[in-house]
Structure formats: structure tokens, C-alpha cells
Amino acid sequence: MSAPEDAASTAAAWGTAPLPQGAWLGVLGGGQLGRMFCQAAQTLGYRVAVLDPAESCPAGMVADEHVRAAYDDVAGLDRLAQRCAAVTTEFENVPADSLRHLARTRTMAPSGDAVAVAQDRLAEKSYIQAAGVPVAPHAAIGSMADVEGCPDALFPGILKTVRLGYDGKGQVRVASRDEARQAFGTLRGVPCVLEALQPLEDEISVVVARDLRGRAVSYPPSRNTHRDGILALSIVDGAVASDIADQARGYALSLADHLDYQGVLCVEFFVLSDGRVMANEMAPRPHNSGHYTQDGCLISQFEQQARIMVGLPLGGTDLLRPTAMLNLLGDVWFDAQGRQREPDWAGLLAVPGTRLHLYAKSEARRARKMGHVNVLADDAAQLRERIARVSAVLGLPDV
Ligand code: ATP
Ligand code: MG
After folding, report:
1. What is the domain extent for residue 151?
2. How far is the centre of ligand 1, averaged over its atoms, from the C-alpha of 226 (Å)?
3. Which atom of ligand 1 is least distant from the CA of 160?
4. Which protein residues have a CB closer than 5 Å to ligand 2 (ion)?
5. Nearest residue to 28 (alpha-carbon basis) of 79, 84, 91, 83
6. Ligand nearest to the backbone CA of 203
7. Domain shared by 27 and 164, yes or no
């Protein structure tokens, strides 16, 4: 088939032609997720403008243009809209009204309404349940009276702020009602949700990409290990039982459908010791646990995000080889005596199957996400062995 026919058949399949090469895409937020989105969109021949208030930021460094403005600055948003045919976001705490403003004149994926749901743990849980997906037993805690009145069955539990929690921040484990009283006081009485503590066998997450017409694909679930509340390791090696993997992927797709979601969505799940799968929370954007798709799959979560925005077909999500993602926090830049050092990149990359992704952040701070390394192998045992070698080179604790 000749090239013009290719283009014509694609346009016919989609109803409208994809955005032409060289068109501009916008992203709200200049962090590492925005940076990797820029790189994926640029690989497809598009140009990217990043809106972020910081003078210098990981995405701003690689974007074709950096619009320096606050996320609620209408003039800044309008400058982005003037340039860009389609806009996305790289973090969920951007004001939903900014997305609604952009959606008046531009393709906005995801929508402000979908992002607003993800910003509010209570709204999120009710949408998840309405989509037919189980969640942990929970209650809204808006006042001390709610602490007194909530069911005994929620203890031991976790008290989480309804808004602005991330990396385990804004949550307190409470063994009893008395501890919940204290914790609610410590959180200064902001609206919270109390969740019953679940017996976790595993934590898995599924990335879904859903296009503007409602067609959707899901990636194989990653098994996630956290350290100090921050994702440390994601492994995708076929170890998740296929019935559990299918259930999680089905749940994530149902939730995306129910929200009429457009864009890339990540859903985190708990797998309980009795084999049940329940959703924990969702992120309306590419997710740290989906970084394995950059090397473990033909099409990464970031390229899907770009394809959705421009109207290109969604790409394949099959796992090519067993893959793991190890997060590189700023801690790796410090030796046992607390002195700053450059990590041994040569030693790391001498381990077969490794690929390094750094975000070019100027200052290494403890607990700050600085980069990640993807590790590929032929089978699960070789993957384990390579993860151990990478961890030894970087001085990462065993997980
Ligand atoms: P992030 O944004 O980094 O994913 P977060 O701060 O939004 O995290 P959650 O994902 O809600 O917080 O919880 C962090 C971790 O705490 C979970 O990954 C899980 O290990 C544990 N956790 C949370 N809720 C429960 C629960 N109900 N039962 C058991 N463990 C839980
Ligand atoms: Mg989480």
C-alpha cells in the first residue's frame, strides 16, 4: 500500500485525520512524567509546550517551549491553548477548572471532571464502586462525631486525607478508635476517609489507555513494592496468576469506561490473602509503576498518551520480556557516611538487560525521584538475579 493510501485508510478508520506532524501538544506540569511524555510525543514528530511555574524543570528542559505560569493563570493557559491543538496533564493536583477552561477550545485528555474524581478519595471510591469494582470498607470522616460513629469493623484502619495525599503522605495507621481521634486531630481535622486495613498478599497496578472514541487497551499488571511509602520496585514477570491479572485488567477497563475516561489511567489494586482483588486508588495520568512499559513493551504508556491526543491508533501492550523497574531516589546519591557521590552508572549499565532513565534534576535530595532503571531478562529467575546485581551496585536495600 502506498503512503498516501495508508494515511487515507487511517483517516477513514478514525473518521478524522490524526493531527499532522509538527503540530503542538501541551502538557500541564513539568516533572518527570511530563518530560517522558515530551520525549515520546517528539519521537512521533510532534512539538510540545509545557506549562509549569518553575524556572527550570525536567520537562521544560526537553520541551519545544516552556510556558512559565501558574496552573490557574488564565493568560498562561490561553498561551498554551493558542499554540496547542490538544493538551494533557502530568499530575492530578492541577486545578480541574484549568482543564475545563482548556477543554472549551482544545482537545483535553483527560477531562477536568475525571481528574476532579481522582483528586478526591471519597468521590474516587464511589466511582470505583459504581463501576462494579470492589474497594476496602471505608467511611467518610469529616468531624470528631464521625470518628465516634464509624463502625468498629474499620479498626485497625488507615486514616487518609481526602485530598492531596501521595507517596504515603497524609495518612496515619490507627489501631483503635482512640488512635483515630488522635490522628484526626494531628491531621488538623481536614476531611478524611477511614479505611479498614486489608490483609495484603500483593499490590498490583494496571495502566489503561482509552482513546477519544472509547477504544481501550490495558497493560499487564505490575507487582509493586514500596519502601517508606514510596514505590521502590515494579516487577512484571508473569507471576501474577492469570485469573487475578485478568480480573484487575477488566476492572481497570470498566472503571475507564464508567468515567468515559480519555487518556492514560493507572489503577492500583490490592490482592488479598483470600485471592480477592480490590481497587485502592487511581491516577489520571501515566504512573511510576507503568515505567516498565518504556522497555518491556513495544509502545510505552507515554506514547499511548500522545497517540490518544493526536488521534493515532493505540499501540500494542503485550509484555515483550520479563521486566522490572527500580526507582532511583536521591538517597542513591549519598554514601553510608552521608557524603554526596555520583552513583556508579558504568557498573549499573554493565549488568546485562539494564536501561537507565534519569530526569536531569539538578539537586539530589533524599526521597526525591531522580530516575529509574528498567531491567529486562529472559525469565523470572534471571530477572531476580539482575535486580539483585543492580541493587548491589547502587547500594539499594534488598526488597
Ligand atoms: P501513592 O500516591 O504513592 O500511590 P498514596 O499516598 O496515595 O500513595 P495509598 O496508595 O492510598 O497512598 O496508600 C499507600 C500504601 O499504604 C499502599 O500502597 C498500601 O501499601 C498501604 N495501604 C493503603 N491503604 C491500605 C489498606 N486499606 N489496607 C492495607 N494497606 C493499605
Ligand atoms: Mg497509592
Report:
1. 137-196
2. 9
3. 11
4. 268
5. 91
6. 1
7. no
Distance 240 CA to ligand 1 centre (A): 19
Q: What is the CATH number of the domain that holds 48?
A: 3.40.50.20
Within a domain: residue 125? no
What ligand is nearest to the CA atom of residue 164?
1
**Atom number of ligand 1 nearest to Cα 199:** 29
Looking at the 3D structure of the chain, how many domains does it have?
Answer: 3
Statement: residue 165 has pLDDT above 90: no
Same domain, 80 and 229: no
User: Any idea what the CATH number is for the domain that residue 181 is in?
Assistant: 3.30.1490.20
- For residues 76-114, b (16+ Cβ closer than 10 Å) or e, as one string? bbebbbebbbbbbbbbbebbbebbebbbeebbbbbbbeb
Q: Is the pLDDT of residue 148 over 80?
A: yes
User: Is residue 120 in some structural domain?
Assistant: no
Q: How far apart are CA 351 and CA 393, in angstroms?
A: 9
pLDDT in tens, 258-311: 999 999 999 999 999 999 999 999 999 999 999 999 999 999 999 999 999 999
130, part of any domain: no
Q: Band of the pLDDT at 15, cuts 50, 70, 90?
A: low
For residues 188 and 206, state if they share a domain.
no
Is 324 part of a structural domain of the chain? Answer: yes
Mutate to test the pocket of ligand 1, among 91, 124, 158 (most ligand atoms within 8 A of CB): 158
Rounded Cα distance between 395 and 375, Å, is: 16
Does one domain contain both 351 and 272? yes
- Tell me, using a 6 A CB cutoff, whether residue 156 lines ligand 1: no
In DSSP terms, 304 is beta-bridged to: none
Cβ pair 9, 269 in contact under 8 A = no
